[in-house]
Amino acid sequence: MSADRMTGSSRDAEIMTVRSAERGVRNHSRGRTVSAAGMVLCAFFSLAAVGRAELIDRVVATVNNEVITLSELRQAVAFNAALGGKESGRQLEQETREGLINGRLLLQEAYRLKFAEVSEQDIAAEVGRLRQRLGSDDAYRAFLDRTGLTEERLRRMLGDRLLIERFVEKKIGLFARVSRDEAQSYFQDHPNEFKDMRFSQVQKSITALLSQQKVSQQLDLYVAELRDRAVLRLNPLREEEK
Questions:
Q1: Which fold does the domain 8-18+53-241 belong to in CATH?
Q2: pTM of this prediction?
Q3: Which residue, 175, 152, 156, 160, is CA-closest to 116?
Q4: Domain ranges for the chain
Q5: What is the mean pLDDT, run by run of 10 residues, along the chain of 242 residues?
Q6: Cα 135–136–140 angle (5° rounding)?
Q7: Alpha-carbon gap, residue 222 to 138, rounded angstroms
Q8: What gap in Å lies between CA 13 and CA 59, rounded to an integer?
Q9: What are the residues whose beta carbons fall under 8 Å from the beta carbon of 207, sequence distance 6 or more?
């Protein structure tokens, strides 16, 4: 499981950092343990300081007790935009959050069922392909700046995506087989797409198309089933929506 996930009672709480006001309670003698009263005071000062705390992140969704934070959502939007997707907008944020929820559900299943795995070498290869796509080291650094991603976070994101792809291929790919008869029926039913072509020339491309359609249909059904079983909670994306 990714190291940056949080679980348990923090799922509905905003993730906050408290300034050093509560540090007045200290251990002044070397080796001396903090008393129970001291810990109570620490807790009190921590709670009192929440009103002055600096908000650095908050939870926009929980998926079976795993949180999706606002920063994760914004990084995903920026990642897709940097690779040619839509730039921004509330509708886009909502759609991206739904995608993150579905991805988290599939990732949880991948870890639970252990149908697929991803090695460090696989992740390094994914990073290499991204760098090659961007074209230069300068473009790669600009990409990280634009998306707000660290290299470590980028590696985790690419690794998770690759694991989901492999899991879906093994879990659902078996149900997406396309027979020769199915491909030939498609060829005959769409004559305008294949003018002056023989079936043997386009059989592979038709088979790939139909297989992709089947995978998409089966994946929609599988994700809907996972969502029905899951404990999901959506929080407002923006402060004014509260």
A1: Triger factor/SurA peptide-binding fold (1.10.4030)
A2: 0.71
A3: 160
A4: 8-18+53-241
A5: 42 38 41 41 37 63 96 92 76 93 97 94 97 95 94 96 95 87 95 93 95 93 97 85 62
A6: 95
A7: 41
A8: 7
A9: 178, 183
